[in-house]
Amino acid sequence: MNQCGPGFIVVGVDVGGLKKGFHAVALQAGQYREKFSTLLPIEIASWCRKLKAAVVGIDAPCRWSFTGRARPCERALAAEGLHTFATPSQARGETHPFYRWMVNGADLYRCLAPDYPLYNGQRSVSGQVCVETFPHAVACALAGRQLSAGHKRADRARLLQEAGVATDALTNIDWIDAALCALAAHHLKAGTCKAYGDAAEGFIVVPHS
Asked: What is the CATH number of the domain that holds 78?
């Protein structure tokens, strides 16, 4: 598979805590290909390598906060009305139970790192990379407006369908969010995304609205 050609494969990953684990969806040429779930980050990384995915989009912070307050990418999203959990410092994140899903995400980035370096803000992506994204922001960008979280499953499934992604196999919100992360990864590879943040504390990418 030529990962730079029109049929390139991308993966999106929804990250949960120890009991929920990881839900991953692969798109090929922007269309649904397959899905995979596991409790182990190393198995997600192995699946991405097996698929020869060009980009892996992950719904979890790619960096801990230097200050313990919201990172630049989170502040930039908030300025556009897109609010997410503020990433804590590493010390707090690794000791407070609420942030266990962020620790899981950090473990996934580490497992991917040998073959999928972290996106550094470059305009065009030539090799394999992993990148942080945020399903709510992806959905709002696709819709071209702010969306209520109260109808997120129906709204997000509809937006995926409108983008040409079949949703029959996406039977819960975790799969739907993973597919949105994959769609953001597709837009990054295609050069049709917007990046928030900086290299020091990480970028979050979403499709151009």
From this structure: 3.30.420.10
Q: Is the dihedral of CA 52, 175, 102, 95 positive or negative?
A: negative
Domain that holds residue 93: 9-207
Q: Whole-model pTM?
A: 0.95
> Residue 84's closest CA among 134, 15, 14, 154?
134
Give 27-83 pLDDT, tens digit per residue: 999 999 999 999 999 999 999 999 999 999 999 999 999 999 999 999 999 999 999
